[in-house]
Amino acid sequence: MPLLEKGVPVEDRFVQVADDAPLPADSPAVISFARLQRDADALAGRNVPLGVQMASATQARDIAPFLDRVALVVIEFPKFRDGRGFTIARTLRERFGYAGELRACGHILPDQYEFLVRCGFTSVAVPEGADLGVWAAALDRFHVAYQAGMDAAPVISGLRRRLALG
Amino acid sequence: MDIVEGHAALNAGVSTRAGIYHYDEYDREFLRERVAEFRGQVGRRLAGALTEDEFKPLRLMNGLYLQLHAYMLRCAIPYGVLSSAQMRQFAHVARVYDRGFGHFTTRQNLQFNWIKLEEAPDALAALAEADLHALQTSGNCIRNVTTDEFAGAAADELVDPRVYAEILRQWSTLHPEFSFLPRKFKIAITGAPTDRAAIQVHDIGLLAKPGPAGDVGFEVWAGGGLGRVPIIGTKLRDWLSERDFLGYMEAILRVYNALGGRENIHKARIKILVRDLGPEAFIRLVEDEFAALPREKFPLDPAVVAAIQAHFAAPAFADLPHAGTDLALRTAENSPFADWVAHNTHPHKQPGYISAIISLKPIGGIPGDATADQMDAIADLADRYSFDEVRVTHYQNLVLPHVRQDELFDVWHALRGLGLATPNIGTVTDIIACPGLDYCSLANARAIPVAQLLSERFADLRRQYDIGPITLNISGCINACGHHHVGAIGILGVDKKGEEFYQLTLGGSAGNDAAIGEIIGPAVPYDAVVDAVETVVKTYVAQRRPGEAFLQTYRRIGMAPFKDALYATA
Q: What is the pTM of this model?
């Protein structure tokens, strides 16, 4: 799946590892939250970046104790209408101070890209065959927002902020 | 008073003419970008790049529903406040993109019922020219915020809720975290001790009130709602400081977005979450979330409040100490005018002024409908008599908020000429009705014809006045858009094996004494519903004590006499 950062395709340095497969010794790997919980002790000494993938039904506070172990949190969107991932991302950033990479995957639309970035996502795994031009354009379309987000948009007047996401 | 034509008023920026929120360049830039986005989405849909399943929530975010016969465009009227220029633009859109009329709703919005998908972006672009839009009038997001239709005018008001309604409008507009909620989310706010915004039956209800130090704070309610499972809200806070206003909203929404039901559409509103968790546990979660928020990020800056407050500055009222005397003389000499003044006005805080209610409930008419010509005429009256301002009420009527009492007779006379002076506000013919099966794809039964028949049955004004204050609300399905649960008499359309039946409830109220109506008994068929209401009303009239309104009698004597009367004769 193509991976986008700031609207631009980038290489995914992480490999996805199934729960029953061994972890590669020398490359960054993404494991499930269940496995992270199960193998937390064994993973403690690992020197290669670790990522964790969580379902949107998982609460941010459940994963909070493990945040210092991971360099990547992947949040699944089961359906684009399911907005829990936005709250998880925001909570991880704001409440639990997570500063690493935050990636959205699953069923998401380019029309949601602005919201994802403003909730603190840094990368998006878009569906295979997606029109990347539409995704890139989605970040460039909007220049005014009415509320504070995780982006560093400066206040222009009142509650309004000047966006520069693309 | 100068009269400004067309868009000139809008482009004049902040003005003392009408104390409404005027868009600035940033608001307009935002709206232009959103219209362009939607044009692109419609293009992708028409080209097949978006499935209907994917397009649906995007069009809903822009107020576009697919109904029985056509697309319906629900235009936002933030907290029910319109300039006359905006009203004229609605008339224009009604003429060009619809069939020459629009329908004002219980959420202070305006619906066009005959929109073509290909033309929807053009209709939205036309609305945007007058700083109007349809954002978040549907979909699982924070909907248009509603308030007291007499906000900023009412004599009993303590805090002007429009300021905070506008702050909520801005904060909730395309909120990045809360645009894909489990279900729709409705916020109502009032600033008067008499609740005219139904705050106890909203997802969040707010009462703005002055604090001991002259500051402003809020009583916060949540988890109320109508629909399939009507619930009176829970009070979360007696006092929330202005500074923490938005932070606390974020906390409530965040708890709801994380924990609200997503499996079953009928169990997804916040009221179900509050009920299932229990009010205490819900409040603990919200307070915990609120305590953990980075507070420095969410303070409501007093400078922001002051800047928005400036938009709502009182218009240039004339000094009119004796206007009331003139009004008293006029009403004494003209009985139809006196009837209208007695029912269709509301006391104003400014001496010599009054708020005039334009009934959109003519006898036998469709509640809430207005033609493009009527909209234009009302805009002209607003220009001339009410500082260019019109309000929409959640009772599907309109208001000229700031009318000189010594010009009220002229206003009435003009309205009468337009067929808009029905003196029935608050009476049994001031019926709320949803569009029902005549338009709506969700409906089980018709609501509009029932409202029309009831209106005709009770057409006699003397009888309406004798019956006194009463609310009669009709919904064509369990989704309760017609607010039947909070009608003193509520009527719910149901489908029984393909036939329209109507279930009556009694005792509902959306005011300070909020209550959910109780079902009287088995539903009655379409042909019997008017007689059933007649029986209920006659029972009240027979049982009431002097001066007792319907609700008071009902609460004193209970359901039994009504039930006996209805089913004994059936």
A: 0.94
